[in-house]
Amino acid sequence: MDKIDEIAEIAVLGGVGFNSHRDCENYPVKTPYGSVTAYITRINGKDIAIIPRHAKEVHIPPHRVNYRANIWAVRSLGVKRVISTNSVGSMRGHPAGSFVVLDDFIDFTRSRPSTFYDDNTVHVDVAEPYCPEIKEALKYSLNKHGFSYTEGIYACTEGPRFETRAEIRMMSQFADVVGMTGIPEVVLAKELGLCYASLAIVTNQACGMTTQKLTADEVTEVVGKAQDSISEIISETIRNIPETRKCMCRFAKEGACL
Fold it and tell me: Mean per-residue pLDDT for 87-113?
């Protein structure tokens, strides 16, 4: 394992249109998987590392995001808890701009490096993939500020194309929302014993749910309009995350190695 610096307590991983890292201090981090730029700020008395998932200058497509470098960098900064934001399409008629707190996932990705353990067999436990303590803090924040939200299952596809109508019909039988960036992030966080939870924002109805054509513009437009709300929710969540971890996330790798 690499050197751990006590730079931040919590990390925020942002998706499409996420711009909360503006005017923050740049902090480059070298990892075995490549370099990552974290943006260090302070929110509600806590040091926060913000990592824009798709980078700042050139938008990296979801299937090419360096997920291992991002999560390794998070752990290298001393972070124990990760709040992720993800743009999703709804398969349950959620209105655009509403929120979903994820409670499980189904993985339809196929070509992404999905583990830190290429040379060892590690069956990490993901029975409870999203940290219950962060989830409770997210839900408290959403309720406090009167934002509409549900909880649901996330289906992650490879991208970068949108899904077909047939794929959505199939996935809608067992998932609520669909996106392209939540996996393998959550699994990699588990492998490093980090707490991880995701706030998903509904940007559109999934393919076939309406007669309208899906576009990337509507995704960035919805997220752009919701930036202040997202920042408010995350700020309140950071305030209410317990100081001491009492969840089981840090034990996810125990008994996992063959």
Answer: 95
**pLDDT tens readout for residues 118-142:** 998 989 999 999 999 999 999 999 9
Tokens of 238: 């950071």
Query: Is residue 70 marked as binding?
Result: no
Query: Average per-residue pLDDT in the chain?
Result: 90
Tell me what the mean pLDDT of segment 237-252 comes to. 94
Class of the CATH domain delimited by 10-251: alpha beta
How many residues are present in the chain? 258
Q: Which residues are CB-contacts of 145 (< 8 A; sequence separation ≥ 6)?
A: 229, 232, 233, 236
pLDDT tens sequence across 4-28: 778 999 999 986 555 555 667 889 9
Q: Is 181 annotated as a binding residue?
A: yes
Decide: 174 and 154 in contact? Cβ < 8 Å. Answer: no
DSSP structure string for 22-34? TTPEEEEEEETTE
Q: Where are the alpha helices (DSSP H) in the chain?
A: 67-76, 132-144, 165-171, 185-191, 216-225, 227-240
239 is in an annotated binding site: no
CB atoms under 10 Å from CB of 26, counted, come to: 10
Name the phi and psi angles at 257, rounded to 5: -95, 130
Residue 26 annotated as lining a ligand binding site: no
11 known ligand binder: no
Strand bridging mode 10-14 / 46-52? parallel
Pick from 27, 152, 23, 10: nearest CA to 81: 10
Q: Where in the chain are the domains?
A: 10-251
pTM passes above 0.85: yes
